[in-house]
Amino acid sequence: MIILKPTYQEIDDVLEKMQVALEIAREQEPDFYAKYPMELRTEAEAEDIRVATREWNLPEEYLYFLKHYVPTSVSWSTDEYINLDIYGAKDLIGGQSGYNYNHVRDEPITDWPKDYLVIASDEGDPYCIDLSRGDTVIYTAEHGAGTWDFSVAYDNLTEFLHSVLRPRSLEDEEWEMDEDEQYNYYKVLITGPGTDKIKTLVFIKKVFSCDYAQAKAHLETVPLLVYKGIDRGAADIEAQLKGIGADYESRQISWDEFIRG
Q1: To the nearest whole number, what is the mean pLDDT of the chain?
Q2: Which residues touch 18 (CB under 8 Å, ≥6 apart)?
Q3: ∠184-190-196 over CA atoms, to 5°?
Q4: Mean pLDDT, to the nearest integer, of 228-245?
């Protein structure tokens, strides 16, 4: 009798898109990613999976994800996230530190919901699944508020993963795209520090959600892509760059270049 392993096509699809997104980022900024390499492999070490499953009774969908999502120094920065770290199997136990357990005092943290497993963190804000449910509804709360006030962030794991792929500045209602409307697509690139290098670095820090040293590294790789999308978004970025006196270039691109980089 042949036992077929479960497959989750939606998870496979979004993982493929995450791989492509990372490849595009590396192609656009090869010098930067040579200094700060990121890698996303697709097969976890068997021992890492064994450790995770010994520790927790994980939902099958999430376990499938862990087996096929192996990040190394990967963080996702969007309008929604500053630097979202989604844990692979080998990082899962360490990712609980400071939430359910205080490793400095070597004691559990009593106000943490006992069935909540932190699967990702954005600058301290946890994203969790409730293991008592057996599903992958994603909960989040703001850290540093004194108490954990959790709410549902996404209905399932797939929705959560798709959230890291949303283009910058295209998430608000005014940016909803009518499929019947025709759009022009643009790239905006910083080509030099301009009249005020500090303001340009601050702008880069905001765009890439990075620290000052990383912003300086970005600026050294000019021309630096800071926006790719529809014309309205490009106009907004141009206005900001004009305001800070940065050197920049804006050029129209084809649909194919918009999709493929």
Answers
A1: 84
A2: 40, 69, 161, 164, 165
A3: 135
A4: 88
| pLDDT(61) > 90 | yes
Taking phi over 0 as left and psi of -120 to 50 as alpha, with beta for the rest, 209 belongs to: left
At residue 56, the pLDDT reads 95
Q: Is 245 left (phi over 0), alpha (psi -120 to 50) or beta?
A: left
- Evaluate if residue 44 carries a pLDDT over 90: yes
Compute CA distances 185 → 66, 178, 188, 235, whole Å: 36, 15, 10, 11
Q: How far is CA 198 from CA 71, 91, 109, 202, in A?
A: 32, 36, 42, 6
Whole-number Å distance between alpha carbons of 141 and 207: 24
Sequential DSSP letters for 122-144: ETTEEEEEETTTSS--EEE--TT
Tally the C-alpha atoms within 13 A of residue 148's C-alpha that lie toward its C-beta: 21
Q: What is the pLDDT of residue 174?
A: 43
67 neighbors 43 (Cβ within 8 angstroms): yes
Highest mean pLDDT among 29-33, 130-134, 210-214: 130-134
Q: How far is Cα 230 from Cα 169, in angstroms, rounded to an integer?
A: 10
Region of 157 please: left (phi>0), alpha (psi -120 to 50) or beta.
Answer: alpha
**Cα separation, 58 vs 117, whole angstroms:** 9
